[in-house]
Design goal:
Layout: H1 5-9, E1 19-20, E2 27-28, H2 29-43, H3 46-55, H4 84-93, E3 98-99, H5 101-106, H6 109-113, H7 117-121, E4 125-126, E5 130-132, E6 140-141, H8 144-156, E7 164-168, H9 174-187, H10 201-211, H11 220-225, E8 228-232, H12 236-239, H13 242-252, E9 256-260, E10 270-272, H14 277-282, E11 285-286, E12 290-292, H15 299-317, H16 323-329, E13 330-331, H17 333-340, H18 345-352, H19 356-367, E14 372-376, H20 378-381, H21 386-399, E15 409-412, H22 419-424, H23 433-443, H24 455-463, E16 469-473, H25 477-480, H26 484-492, E17 496-501, E18 514-519, E19 528-529, E20 532-533, E21 536-539, E22 544-548, H27 562-574, H28 590-599, H29 606-609, E23 616-617, E24 634-635, E25 650-656, E26 661-662, E27 665-666, E28 676-677, E29 682-685, H30 687-693, E30 700-707, E31 710-721, E32 728-732, E33 757-763
Parallel strand pairs: 2-10, 3-4, 7-16, 8-9, 8-14, 9-12, 13-24, 14-15, 16-17, 17-18, 25-32, 29-31
Antiparallel strand pairs: 1-28, 5-6, 5-18, 10-11, 19-20, 21-22, 22-23, 25-33, 26-27, 29-32, 30-31, 30-33
Length: 771
């Protein structure tokens, strides 16, 4: 009997043999090197691993498909310009096992869904297009022409183009992403949700409102020259380890670092540079000078407490703030100050969870420094008040004049390698009219003006059967999205679900009535079209566009590039109705870039600029103090304290990644830095809270969230005592995504509130489960 979509979406509740060790107090070093090499050699042959290690993130090589941390503009390490998880990412896409029709003949969709996400991902690289017929238990082979026709037939039989959803993951190149959004708009809809909707949309909204551009303002060189860096809601050692090298350079140059996070993270305690024998011998570099262990979603309260003390100091000294900058370059300063003075310092301290002494230490560091950078990730962006979180930190920078000068500014650290580039070239459900006007002028069709569905709205539309086709260009949508059961039901309501992918993931098993898997080239593989190797491009977290070119022979001769897949589907769907000659792009990607430069600002002379080994920077108004806001100046903002309150027995839960994980990709079952081995179904709880609830380490509990009258449950998690604030807990995603309500998201940004979910935890008595 076939399992329901929601059953197949849930991760396995089977336990492994959980092992616990004391959490680490340093990061990287030789253990990271050893872990990376072991992982690479387990899933790749030695020759492939060596070839990759010499070319990944190097000039003239290919961009790591993992995080979006920038490469140095100048010289890059000859020992390897990559990290432990970067090499694991490469092992994931260059693994030496392929899966084709014979694999799917042996394994039904229901059987595959019983596997863990780790097992699914390690099944192998997808080698040929596959089709799941209505009511079928197994995928079967389909040729590319028939696959394209099936997509086109479904799209052309919809009553309106708005019944189709076109999702994009951040691994897609600029070239493929530009053509994808062009096709979707030519088809007649703006339904272009992307992974940014689920991670940094709040950053874009907050920065656009306050500074006039939805991107960070700093360059990598600014990190080195900063006098003070606040690292907030972020775990660099796991999510973007090369950032630690930059922080180490900052410390060497005399800079100070403040870490603000609910959990102490090894990478922000001490970093052992694996490329420095001296650092290995001496024990590495202390990173954080101050650690502020903030209550989950206590960031606004913390910053208001800091701001109150800064205002008090400025009144006394009149030299704490950069009043010249404020007068010349900002708006709404007096309104901001008036509102701030309505808050009580002691109340803010209490609600932040941070001690007054630690807050005063941070205040002292800020008072004495003017070159300040604030870095953040999803620890700030995935809350109902996420936009407020970021705007409040921007207020600090504006007070100090720490925008648009060397060693200072905003640094939102993006997760996926080209999520920022995809947005730049048009993957946006709410594109500005100026962009649409350029599309119309260049391609001679009128793109829809009405905004489309972002991720949350897209899920709701599918759930309500207002959308009937889901097309995913990359990613693992079901595991990335909130409210797993609801999202699975939504996908199950579709007539057709399509995924362009390099390897098997859980989204291929949570399908509509029909489903297609379209296998594409990995970024590390050569993209040869009409006998010519093609170049593509990506944009990193700091606005640098650079070339990427694969070096490996494709794992199967049945793979197609993302560009070819998009162009063929567009051609088959739109046919003679199209004003665009789609097929001409497939043989020469330079033609795509010729068109991008006419539509997207900053890409002038694109093909020539891309020949620069280091790439080129896109324009950035905040970097030059040209603020494209309504007033032409940077805006101070008024932000309220979040209004949640915990009842007796409730916890504030945040979802986190393990060290053996990048986004939804599970590399292994260990979280080395937190001392967790061989298990992912765990919940971290403060020991005092455990004692109060009568819980012991490794006890099995069920976790429940209730929002707007709807109860959601995650069953069978093992308890781990951990240094986390009282009344807080942490769980890994995607296992705990089932608890994140579909209706709980950031105002104006709609990023899911995955980092602040109110839950209850109850012990379950289960026999014969290994401890």
């Amino acid at each position: 009997m076939s399992s329901s979509a929601s059953e197949k979406a849930l991760t396995s509740e089977k336990f492994n043999d959980l092992k616990l060790k004391k959490p680490a107090t340093n990061s990287v070093g030789l253990p990271a090197v050893t872990s990376a090499i072991k992982h690479a050699l387990k899933y790749m042959d030695a020759k492939t691993a060596f070839e990759i290690s010499k070319k990944i993130n190097q000039k003239g090589g290919f961009d790591c498909p993992g995080c979006a941390w920038p490469d140095p503009d100048d010289e890059r390490s000859s020992l390897g310009e990559y990290c432990e998880n970067g090499l694991k990412a490469m092992a994931e896409e260059a693994q030496n096992k392929i899966i084709d029709a014979s694999f799917f003949a042996k394994n039904s969709v229901d059987e595959l869904a019983e596997l863990s996400d780790f097992q699914i991902g390690k099944s192998g690289r997808l080698a040929q297009p596959m089709y799941l017929a209505k009511g079928a238990a197994h995928y079967t082979a389909i040729n590319w022409e028939d696959a394209y026709k099936k997509v086109a037939d479904h799209l052309n039989n919809l009553s309106t183009p708005d019944e189709a959803i076109f999702y994009t993951s951040g691994r897609t190149s600029n070239e493929a992403a530009f053509l994808y959004q062009l096709f979707v708009r030519a088809y007649g809809t703006s339904n272009l949700p992307d992974c940014s909707n689920m991670c940094h949309e709040a950053s874009g909204k907050a920065l656009s409102e306050t500074l006039g551009i939805g991107k960070g303002s700093v360059k990598l060189d600014d990190i080195y020259k900063a006098e003070l860096i606040l690292v907030v809601g972020q775990n660099p050692a796991t999510n973007h380890p090369r950032m630690l090298t930059a922080l180490e350079k900052c410390k060497k140059n005399g800079g100070k670092i403040v870490a603000i996070n609910p959990l102490p993270e090894a990478g922000l305690i001490k970093f052992i540079n694996p490329q420095s024998p001296q650092k290995i011998i001496t024990g590495g570099t202390k990173i954080a000078d101050v650690f502020a262990q903030v209550m989950i979603n206590g960031d606004v309260a913390l910053i208001k407490a800091i701001l109150l003390k800064l205002v008090e100091a400025d009144v006394t000294n009149n030299a704490v703030f950069d009043h010249e900058f404020i007068q010349k370059n900002t708006s709404f300063y007096s309104e901001f100050i008036s509102d701030l003075k309505t808050y009580n310092f002691d109340d803010c301290v209490k609600r932040s969870g941070v001690s007054e002494s630690v807050i005063l230490d941070i205040v002292d560091l800020i008072i004495k420094r003017d070159k300040i950078i604030i870095c953040w990730a999803m620890g700030l962006t995935q809350h109902k008040n996420a936009v407020d979180n970021i705007r409040e930190f921007v207020n600090i920078l504006l007070l100090k004049g720490s925008i648009g000068k060397e060693g200072a500014g905003t640094c939102p650290v993006r997760g996926h390698s080209n999520v920022q580039g995809d947005r730049t070239v048009g993957i946006w459900e709410a594109a500005p009219q100026a962009f649409l006007d350029k599309i119309e002028a260049k391609f001679n069709f009128k793109p829809p003006v009405k905004h489309g569905y972002a991720v949350i709205d897209a899920i709701k539309a599918m759930h309500e059967k207002k959308a009937k086709v889901f097309f995913g260009l990359g990613g693992n949508f079901i595991s990335a999205a909130p409210d797993t059961v609801y999202t699975a039901e939504a996908l199950g309501n579709c007539d057709l679900t399509v995924h362009v992918s390099t390897k098997l993931n859980r989204s291929h098993l949570v399908t509509g009535k029909e489903a297609l898997i379209l296998p594409c080239l990995a970024r590390s593989e050569k993209d040869v079209q009409n006998g010519q190797e093609q170049l593509q491009s990506v944009e990193n977290s700091m606005g640098v566009v650079s070339a990427t070119k694969g070096i490996l022979t494709p794992c199967s001769n049945q793979l197609q590039s993302e560009v070819a897949i998009v162009c063929n589907i567009a051609h088959e769907t739109l046919n003679e109705k199209s004003t665009v000659n789609w097929l001409r792009y497939i043989d020469n990607y330079a033609l795509i870039r010729d068109d991008i430069q006419e539509v997207v600002a900053g890409f002038e002379d694109y093909n020539n600029k891309l020949q620069r080994p280091e790439g080129f920077y896109l324009p950035n108004g905040a970097r030059t103090r040209h603020f494209k806001t309504k007033t032409g100046k940077a805006h101070f903002s008024i932000n309220k304290l979040p209004d949640w309150q915990l009842k007796e027995g409730e916890f504030m839960m945040t979802t986190i990644r393990s060290h053996d994980q990048f986004n939804t990709t599970i590399y292994g079952l260990n979280d080395r830095y937190r001392g967790v081995f061989n298990e992912r179904r765990v919940v971290f709880i403060n020991p005092e809270d455990m004692e109060q609830k009568g819980l012991m380490a490794k006890d099995i509990v069920n976790i429940t969230s209730t929002f707007n009258g709807v109860m959601r449950s995650a069953q069978k998690f093992k308890v781990i005592p951990y240094k986390i604030p009282r009344h807080c807990c942490a769980t890994y995603f995607p296992e705990a995504n089932v608890l994140v309500p579909i209706d709980s998201y950031a105002h104006t940004a709609k990023t899911p509130s995955s980092k602040s979910v109110i839950v209850t935890i109850e012990k379950e008595i289960i026999q014969n489960i290994p401890k």
